[in-house]
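Re: the request from the purification team.
They wanted to know what the chain is likely to look like in 3D before they choose a buffer screen. I agreed to run a prediction and write the result into the notebook, where they can find it.
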Amino acid sequence: MASTRNLRGEMPFLNHLEELRWHILWSVLSVTVGAVIGFALVYYFGVLDLLIEPVRVAAGDPDLKLQYLSPADSFFVTLKLAIYSGFIMAFPIVAYHTWSFLSPALEKREKRLIVPALYLGMLLFIAGMALAYFAALPVTLEFFQKFQTDALAANYEINATLGFIVKLLLAFGIVFELPIVIMVLSMMGLVTPKFLRTKRRHAIVLITVVASFITPGDVVVLTIMMMVPLVGLYELGIFLSWLIYRGKAQREKELEADLTPPTDSIEAQ
């Protein structure tokens, strides 16, 4: 698609919408292709067994199987997992098209920062999901298993069980995007490194509340395990914000230097 931008990066409104349409189409296509690949991975490589393995361990039954109530449930569960997997795999392409559309409105330094930030966001999301799967999910399931009594019979239904697991994984992945959120807010000028430093204690309290909310009630160790990386991610966000504002200060100095007339010029006399 030929670009109609002028030297200042501007373009007519209708052409702007046309470019946005193409970026959206390519992003949707990449997610669709990723979902097809994800469907093959889920169906042929036992992703479903991988997800329910912590349930089997917590229940003490290595042969535990999830129940489904409709003939189509197994297909739609596989389809949902494929879509989730497809979006994660397509994230680099979606990030690229997002950057391509927004880059004319960004300065050069911001262009250099935004793409690594988007890929960093993907890595942080995967790291959050990994922490949830290997640490939070087993402890959470063991905590709920303590309330199993002789008066109750466990029947693990596929939609409810996988829905719980996927929501927990996604919650951890989204929470781990904290540095990227701080970075975007800093680029928009809504927060500053000084503000973030002065509000550090408030942030730790909020992180404690969030960690307590998404972890089971009396598992203090798990809450601390969640708090420690979040505090570290908050500090990373402060560092990224500092980099952004340092770049802005350098550009302002360069602009002032360009606007300052030479000492031997008529204007300086």
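For the purification team: The radius of gyration is 24 Å.
Please add any questions underneath this entry.
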